[in-house]
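Schema walkthrough. Field components (list of strings):
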Amino acid sequence: MATNTYVLVHGAWHTGAELDATAERLRARGHTVHCPTLAGNRPGDDRARTGLEDAARSLVDDLEQHQLQQVRLVGHSYGGMVISRTADLCPQRLARLVYVNAFVPQPGECLNDLVPPHYTALFDGVAAANGGAVMLPFPIWREAFINDADGALAQQAFDRLNPHPYKTFQDPITLSQPMAACPLPKSYVNCRMDSALPQSLGWHPRLSERLGLFRYIECSGSHEVWFTDPAAIAAAIEQAGRD
Amino acid sequence: MATNTYVLVHGAWHTGAELDATAERLRARGHTVHCPTLAGNRPGDDRARTGLEDAARSLVDDLEQHQLQQVRLVGHSYGGMVISRTADLCPQRLARLVYVNAFVPQPGECLNDLVPPHYTALFDGVAAANGGAVMLPFPIWREAFINDADGALAQQAFDRLNPHPYKTFQDPITLSQPMAACPLPKSYVNCRMDSALPQSLGWHPRLSERLGLFRYIECSGSHEVWFTDPAAIAAAIEQAGRD
Amino acid sequence: MATNTYVLVHGAWHTGAELDATAERLRARGHTVHCPTLAGNRPGDDRARTGLEDAARSLVDDLEQHQLQQVRLVGHSYGGMVISRTADLCPQRLARLVYVNAFVPQPGECLNDLVPPHYTALFDGVAAANGGAVMLPFPIWREAFINDADGALAQQAFDRLNPHPYKTFQDPITLSQPMAACPLPKSYVNCRMDSALPQSLGWHPRLSERLGLFRYIECSGSHEVWFTDPAAIAAAIEQAGRD
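Field assembly_structure (string):
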C-alpha cells in the first residue's frame, strides 16, 4: 500500500491536538501525519484580531517549515475555508484537497455566508460580549455537534475547546478561482450523522458540489467523529486521500 | 452507565406488544421500559369514535398510574402525534422526547395533513368501508413499510396488526406552542431504509427540523425495524434518549 | 429459504462478465443467475448502429433461449433502460424488476434526458471522435464512479471496460405506460456512496419514485460496487428480489 503525507486541519474551537487520535490511526497505517494548530487557536493568540488570511498563512508557514511535498490536505468544518485559501497560496506542495464536513467557499464569501441566520445571530452576540471570541453554547454542542457521544464524552470534549477568533468567520476569502476550477484532485467526506448544519442547508450536496469533479466518501458518526470514532474517520480519510 | 425510564409509544395498527422485543434489549441494559397500548388500539375499543385526544389522555393516564418520572418518551410514526400532545399535558413527568420516524405536527395539524394525498385517498375509502377503522393493504405494508423483512416475517408481522381508529388521523392536534418552542430536550431517530413516506415528502429533515434544536440519530432498517432488527433500534433509542 | 432465478443486466461500458463475482455470491445462496451481455457491448458488435431497442431485444432473446420463467430482472445504471423496455416486451417471464442505481425512463425519454448536461456535452464529443462509441475519461471513472476503490482496482476495472454504442443513450424508449403503472413488483437498490450522478440530480428519490409503489433497499458502496464489494451488492439484490 502506498504511504502518503497527510496534514489534518482542525475546525473552529479546536486545535491540532484534538485530531491526534485520528492521526495515530493513519500513522499506524504507515502514513506521515501533521496536525498543526492554526493562528488564532493557539494559547495567547489575539482572538480579536486574527483573521482568515492569518490562519491560512500560518498553515502555509507550517507546510514550508517542514518542507512538506505531495500533501493530502484535509480540512474539517472551518478548516475547509483555510485549505481552500491554502490551495491558492501554495498549490505546488499539495497532491489533493480533502474536505471533511467542511465549508467550500466561493471567491469573496465568508464562513458566515454559509451558515443559517440563527447561527450568525447567536455568534454575533457571543463575540460582542467576549472581545471578538466566539464559543458554542453547550446544548448546541451536545445535541447538534457531538450527537453520537454519551454525556461524559460530550462534556469532556467540550472542556477541550478554545475560544475562536470570530473575525475568521467574517473575513471574505480571497480565491483566484472557484474551487470547481482548481486543478487539484478533491474529495469530500460526509459523516452521515453530522447535524452541525441543518440537513436542508447542509454540507452535502450543497457545499460538496461546489468542488466540481470530486470523490465522495461517506463515514459514520457526527461532526465530532474525531472524538467519538477516530478509527472510522481515519479509514474514511485514507479512502478519500489515496490516489 | 446511567439507567433511565423509557416509555415506547407504538404507531398506528400496532400495540405495545410489538415493541416488546426492543424493550427487552433496553431492559437488558438496565433501563426501565413501559410499552403501553394507546386507547383506540386495545381489544374492544371503539374504532369509530376514539380520537387523538383520547389516545393522548390514555398515555397520560398510564404515566400517572405508574407514577413515572424523568421519562424518555419515545414515539413511533403516529406515536409522534401522541407524544407531542402528551408533552403539553404532563411535561413535568418527561425528561426528553424521542421521535422514531414519527410525525411532528404544528399546532392545529392532523396526521393526514402530513402524508401524501394518495395515502389520504386510500385511507378515506378503507375507513368508509370499515366503520371508521383503517387498515394498510398488504402490498404497501410489504414493499414500503417492512421492506427489509423476508416474505415470511412480513406476513407474520402483518397478521399482528389491528384495525386503527381513523379519527386519530383526522383530529387536529391541540398544542400550546410549536414543538420547536417546547423546552424539553428532543431527539429524532431516522431509519435509513424507511420508505413509509416517500423520501421527497419524508420524515427527515422535513419533519425532524420542526423540533428546533434536536439530537439526530441514524439507524439501519425500515419503518418496521421493531420486527426486523430490535437490537439496532434499541441501540439507537439509547443513543437518542441518554443525557 | 426460497431460491429464485436472477438475470443481472450490466450497465454501459460493461459486459456480463463484470457481474460474475456478484452472481457467484447469489449462486452460493442457491439461486440461478444469468449475466447476459447486451447487443452493443459484445466483441465485434457495431458500436455505431446498435440502439436501445437492439439491446432490449437481445435480452428478450436470451430469456427466451434459456426459457427462463419467474425472473427477477436486475438492471444496473443503463441496464435500467433495458429492463424497462423488456418489461414491456415479455412481462410474462418476469416476477419482479430490480433497479440498481439505474435509470427509470418515462415513455419517450432517452438516457441522455436523465443525466446532467455536462455529461451529454462530454459524451457528444467523445462519440463524434470515436465512430459513435463513447468511453468514460479515467478521472471521472476513478473519482465519481469507483470512488470506494483503491487506485490499483480502479485502474484494473477501467481496463476491462468496452466502448459503448452511444445510440443507446440517444434513442427514446418505447413504453406502453409509465413504469409506475407497470403491474410487476419493483425494487430500487441505492448504493449510498454512488456519485455517478450528482446527488442533487441523482438516482434516489428522483428516479426511484417514478416506479410508483416500490421496495427500497440501501447498500454500501459506489456505482461500481460490483468490483469493490460483490458480497454487499449480492445481499442487497437478494433483499430486493425475494418475494
